Amino acid sequence: MHEMALCEGIIEIVEEEARRRSFSKVKTVCLEIGALSYVVPEAMKLSFAAVAARTIADGAVLKIVEQPGLAWCMACSASVEIARRCEPCPRCGSYQLQVTAGEEMRVKELEID
What we know:
Keywords: Metal-binding, Nickel, Zinc. By secondary structure, this protein is α+β, with helices and mostly antiparallel strands. The chain has helices at residues 3-21, 41-52, and strands spanning 26-34, 61-67, 69-73, 78-82, 97-101, 105-112. The two termini are 31 Å apart.
C-alpha cells in the first residue's frame, strides 16, 4: 500500500511548513488528488491517521478533494474528462488521448491552531 509512504511525505511537508511558519498544531489537512493518480482516497484516510499519530498532525482531519482526469483527444481535438487511463474519448471513441490533468496530488491547505 503506497498510500502509507505518501502520507509520510505529507507529514514531512506539514512539519516543514510548521517550522517555516511557527505553528504547533494542525487541525485539518486538505489534499487534492487527481482521478488518474493511482491513489485510493479511503486508503489515504486510513494511512494518514496511523502516520499522523504522535506528530504535529495527531488527530487532524484529512479532507480529500478529488480532481477529474482530463485529456486532449488527438482525433477530435477536444479536451475531455476521463475516469481512467486507457478508456476511449467520450466524444469520438478514439484511444488517442494525451492526459493533461488528474495525475497530481498536492497539499491544498492546512487549518492550524
